[in-house]
Structure prediction request, 175 residues.
Amino acid sequence: MKREIAWEEPFDDSYGPGFITRMFVVSGRVYAVGFEEIYNDQQLVNKGIHINADIPDFQFPDAGMWAVAFDQVETAEAWGGYNHVRLPGLLAGKVLLKVARSIIEHYYVSNAGAYVFSAALDREHERNVDLVSIYNGFLGLGYKRTKPLVALPNMKCYGNLGEGGRGYVVTTESY
Prediction:
């Protein structure tokens, strides 16, 4: 049985059931991390991930699964649509660490069993390095270094998922 979560600041559940946001500021710009609760396979298929084809023994965790998206926010009413966000220089690293911190904070409130997210395509070719390479390095996937830069308790990471290989699933000790 799923427990009811009382979301408090810095999280915002005013966008409706199963959708939580957390905003933060870096260098005067406002960003948001959105968390959408995932209840079934079809929601993942809609996001381009066929979970049981990619991870055959995957089971939906009793503790819940959340899709994570990140965006720059111009105003509370005008979000960027969760597309590629251009981040010059060191700003990208600072923002990525804040996104990771938001996920960790979400985990400690929700006790989620798994998170799913995708590396946005850079359709305008503004990045020198593809987000897949950045996320793989951050999660410790495909590199000699076996430990991720940021970790949830007993997390296990899966990459190269879904259409185009840009999807990720991270399970936690609650899985």
User: Anything to note?
Assistant: The chain has a mean pLDDT of 84. The first strand starts at residue 11 and ends at 12. The beta strands are 11-12, 19-26, 29-38, 65-75, 78-79, 114-118, 156-161, 167-171. DSSP finds four helices and eight strands in the chain.
